[in-house]
């Protein structure tokens, strides 16, 4: 029972039965899922429950719009193949704070983010700049977003073109056209914003967002990638491809359907001899 309490507390107190059980198994504990469920109920602890998604897109019909090149297929064959971007807002005692994310869809890793008191283009551009600096992607990257004016702005589209990134844009008001980004933002709202609010300041939101992203990328277990953290999934990919092996891209598929990939350069090593 102490180990169950510890795992729950070490993971933002947001894990439910399934995630606690998977983490215990990763740590070498042999325990049945039903036992974890019973003991969590006895301890009075449970996982966080996600709320309804909120719309933040403000479309600008006057801006030119790229085609949707993703078509709701958000599972990429390798890192730095498909990024998705979106933002949300948080109400604080000092006014609204807007938080933008850039997510690599291979392992759902957050590769760029920015919190801002302004909803102007600069804050989503800053999130993109962080992603470009951290990842240094080679050719072949697509960037997908909704039709928000920030993402269709001249400054943003010019930066994508300058970086050699192919733009892709979904439709307005249809959450499925940017579903992965909205899913990650939904986790952020449930695990940070709703759980820890009300919020006094933008600084508080920014600090807790920073802590959550570090945990999310490096320690949070994600079901779509076989209940391992995003950073671990990427490490496994590069280690496997450097050995000339294979990587199963979808934990729900049998091993026979795993896709074989050639060796790809790690972020930051593109073009290195």
TrEMBL record:
Domain of life according to the entry? Bacteria
GO BP term (any one): DNA integration
Q: SUPFAM superfamilies given for it?
A: Ribonuclease H-like (SSF53098)
Gene3D superfamilies according to UniProt: Ribonuclease H-like superfamily/Ribonuclease H
Query: What InterPro entries does this protein map onto?
Result: HTH-like_dom, Integrase_cat-core, RNaseH-like_sf, RNaseH_sf, Transpos_IS3, Transposase_IS3/IS150/IS904
Task: Tell me the Pfam families matching this sequence.
Answer: HTH_21, rve
Q: Which residues form the signal peptide?
A: none
Q: Which segments constitute the Integrase catalytic domain? A: 75-238
Molecular functions per Gene Ontology: nucleic acid binding
Task: Identify this protein by name.
Answer: Transposase InsO and inactivated derivatives
Q: Which organism is it from?
A: Aliiruegeria lutimaris
């Amino acid at each position: 029972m102490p180990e169950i309490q510890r795992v729950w507390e070490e993971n933002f107190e947001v894990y439910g039965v399934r995630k606690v059980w998977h983490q215990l198994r990763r740590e070498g504990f042999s325990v049945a899922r039903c036992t974890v469920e019973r003991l969590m109920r006895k301890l009075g602890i449970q996982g966080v429950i996600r709320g309804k998604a909120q719309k933040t897109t403000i479309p600008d019909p006057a801006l030119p719009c790229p085609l949707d090149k993703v078509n709701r297929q958000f599972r990429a064959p390798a890192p730095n193949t498909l990024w998705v971007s979106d933002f949300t807002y948080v109400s604080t005692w000092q006014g609204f704070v807007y938080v933008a994310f850039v997510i690599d869809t291979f392992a759902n890793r957050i590769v760029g983010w920015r919190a801002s008191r302004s909803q102007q283009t600069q804050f989503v551009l800053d999130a993109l700049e962080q992603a470009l600096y951290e990842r240094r992607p080679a050719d072949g990257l697509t960037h997908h977003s909704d039709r928000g004016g920030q993402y269709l702005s001249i400054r943003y589209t010019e930066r994508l073109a300058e970086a050699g990134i192919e733009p892709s844009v979904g439709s307005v008001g249809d959450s499925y056209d940017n579903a992965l980004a909205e899913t990650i933002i939904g986790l952020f709202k449930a695990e940070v914003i709703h759980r820890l609010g009300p919020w006094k300041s933008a600084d508080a939101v920014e600090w807790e967002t920073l802590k959550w992203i570090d945990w999310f990328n490096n320690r949070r277990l994600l079901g779509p990638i076989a209940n391992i953290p995003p950073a671990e999934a990427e490490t496994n990919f590069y280690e496997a491809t450097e050995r000339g092996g294979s990587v199963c891209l979808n934990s729900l598929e049998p091993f026979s359907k795993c896709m074989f990939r050639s060796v790809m350069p790690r972020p930051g090593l593109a073009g290195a001899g």
